[in-house]
Amino acid sequence: MKRRLLLVSNSTLHGGGYLEHCQQEIQEFFGKQVKRILFVPYALHDRDAYAKTARGKLQSLGYEVDSIHEASDPVEAVRKAQGIFIGGGNTFRLLKTLYDHNLVSEIQKRVLQDGVPYMGSSAGTNVSTVSINTTNDMPIVYPPTLAAIGLVPFNINPHYLDHNPQSKHMGETREQRIQQYHEEPDTPSVLGLREGSMLLVEGDKATLLGSTKARLFSRGKPPTEYEPGSDLSFLLAEGK
Amino acid sequence: MKRRLLLVSNSTLHGGGYLEHCQQEIQEFFGKQVKRILFVPYALHDRDAYAKTARGKLQSLGYEVDSIHEASDPVEAVRKAQGIFIGGGNTFRLLKTLYDHNLVSEIQKRVLQDGVPYMGSSAGTNVSTVSINTTNDMPIVYPPTLAAIGLVPFNINPHYLDHNPQSKHMGETREQRIQQYHEEPDTPSVLGLREGSMLLVEGDKATLLGSTKARLFSRGKPPTEYEPGSDLSFLLAEGK
Ligand SMILES: [Ca+2]
Ligand SMILES: [Ca+2]
Fold this sequence. Notes:
The structure is a homodimer. Chain A is of the alpha/beta class. Helices cover 26% and strands 21% of the residues of chain A. Chain A is built from 7 helices and 11 strands. In chain A, strands 3-2-4-5-1-8-9 form a 7-stranded mixed β-sheet. In chain A, 49% of the residues are buried. At the A-B interface, helix 7 of A face helix 7 of B. The structure holds calcium ion (2 copies). One calcium ion binds at residues 88-90, 122-123, 137 of chain A. Residues 88-90, 122-123, 137 of chain A line the site of one calcium ion (CA). Chains A, B: One of its GO terms (cellular component) is cytoplasm. Chains A, B: Its EC number is 3.4.13.21. Chains A, B: Keywords: Cytoplasm, Dipeptidase, Hydrolase, Protease, Serine protease.
């Protein structure tokens, strides 16, 4: 399988600029052969402003940016893309818009069959997985399904957050929320990517990158922790 | 309209027991005429354990409890109910189960037409409103719609949380999430009920109760704060 993915937990790390904490990984991922990246700004309301931010940063790393919202035919834009980057925002709005424009199967085909490199950040990482069942976002719109692009056979929880024992807030912790997901039958593993971490997938090899550990939740098993640099390729074999 | 509602932000306040912080309001709300309360435990996976917890607490306040999951015919149980209490947990699971059992319209009818008192806590508060678009919960299952029981013409965000300026977490604040909802067209107001607060609705009168302020978000307007005791009846006229 030609699949190449860079799935980032968060676009901005506290105290840093947009995509600053992962800029080296972005350059290594897209390399010198990709000249233009197709940016998908659908997760935010102000697409022009969002495209401007993404364009500014990616140009500084050596890439021209086409924003899909400026294309007259979004499906055609995906067909021609050398590389794809889907940014964060609201995951429900993003997934619904991808379905509204018939882009889900097209992106899947381009990435899995043609080997077009796919980078996602936050909501853009959520939609690359089996489903958006483990997003943190508010369901501000109703997508036709929670099933997503399915570039990997597991789910991700971006911005994974450890419980703060000092907190007096009584809403569910992130871990409790993911455990509620696993109370449902036939639910895939969920990789909790803390802010600062990202997953690099090349074919059937998956590696945890970045500066923070990741926490893996699998149905019926205790959670496990992985250090940056860990080989997580076993997750790609899930469901096989 | 006979409508009587007690919509609680959270069932447990930090340092207190289950429903302890609102037990006086519960007794005033259900009064002496209601002898039996129909409890809906669908938001949690372990319904038996949940019913036991609710039964223990409500019995101590003088009410017998029938849990709907023990009824052979849930619709019939709603038809016979003297009072209804829907508990918290996962809002998506709760709403889906209410639709699976054809309970949404039946509960609506009993509360709005027959005046059966309805108490909700957290997810049980979410499902009493226009829609669950402003739940904090993870979308662990896919309900047939986000439209809810519609006992009031606005939405609520339970467990409303102020941004902690010390936090280094970069996920959206609660206020940002609600503002993203209001970027969508024709979205109703959202009452942010902080933990410790609750809304009492009697006919066309709504009053904020409890120990904490509430924050109201209306599309295209700056947020406003309301003290406990505030008359929020104007919210019931929304959309008229
Ligand atoms: Ca988000
Ligand atoms: Ca909840």
